């Protein structure tokens, strides 16, 4: 099936940003005097909005400490951490190929903030790739489906003509909540077994496999 609208998660789906997210969150937790966080703990919450991620990572954290952690995470991610963030190999060419298809529309649904997404759009000159986007701070965080519902309404696409692509159960569960087709990718953070619980149409194990099937090959 060729979908009229393809909605992508960002971190771990299009961009190889997981190592930077992990290192920044670990540094922020230490500076906020919460303590050490394992890489696995941080990877588990990637995709959620930042307040929701902190609440899940640090159960019982007090509001002032949570705000300190949030501030330090943002500082590291924007200015202090030099861990490279690149698109997964082949993403730029594959997106261009999809955009060349008549009436194809593309969107982003991400746990990033609007400021964060716009920053990476500008840094990578990728904002023009997408017809619309939603971030966790301007709607509801995943796995709530509000950002998907808003994208469908903005682009005037029925749910049966759209698909959500992501590397976490949060991506797939928000699509499942409104009956949208969903595709999992295994090169991000959640395991194939975990993704399978959300009953995706299929699971891709590489960028080439993902885009070849999205393109209908």
Automatic annotation (TrEMBL):
NCBIfam families: HAD-SF-IA-v1 (TIGR01549). SUPFAM superfamilies: HAD-like. Gene3D superfamilies: HAD superfamily/HAD-like, Putative phosphatase, domain 2. GO terms for cellular component: cytosol. The keyword Phosphoprotein does not apply. Pfam families: HAD_2. It comes from the Bacteria. One of its GO terms (biological process) is DNA repair. InterPro entries: HAD-like_hydrolase_sf, HAD-like_sf, HAD-SF_hydro_IA, HAD_2, HAD_sf, PGP-like_dom2. This is HAD-IA family hydrolase. The lineage of its organism: Bacteria, Pseudomonadati, Pseudomonadota, Gammaproteobacteria, Oceanospirillales. Keywords: Hydrolase. GO terms for molecular function: phosphoglycolate phosphatase activity.
């Amino acid at each position: 099936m060729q979908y009229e609208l393809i909605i992508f998660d960002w971190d771990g789906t299009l961009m190889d940003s997981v190592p930077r997210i992990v290192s920044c969150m670990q540094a922020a937790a230490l500076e906020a005097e919460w303590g050490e966080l394992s890489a696995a703990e941080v990877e588990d919450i990637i995709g959620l909005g930042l307040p929701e991620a902190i609440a899940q990572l640090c159960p019982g954290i007090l509001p002032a400490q949570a705000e300190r952690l949030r501030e330090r995470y943002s500082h590291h991610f924007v200015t202090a951490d030099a861990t490279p963030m690149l698109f997964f190999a082949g993403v730029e060419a594959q997106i261009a190929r999809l955009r060349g298809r008549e009436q194809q529309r593309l969107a982003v649904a991400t746990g990033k903030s609007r400021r964060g997404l716009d920053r990476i759009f500008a840094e990578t000159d990728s904002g023009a790739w997408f017809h619309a986007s939603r971030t966790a701070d301007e709607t509801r965080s995943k796995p709530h489906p509000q950002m998907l519902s808003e994208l469908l309404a903005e682009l005037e696409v029925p749910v049966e003509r759209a698909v959500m692509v992501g590397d976490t159960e949060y991506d797939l569960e928000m699509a499942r909540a409104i009956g949208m087709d969903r595709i999992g990718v295994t090169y991000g953070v959640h395991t194939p077994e975990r993704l399978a619980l959300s009953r995706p149409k299929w699971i891709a194990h590489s960028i080439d496999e993902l885009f070849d099937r999205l393109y209908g090959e």
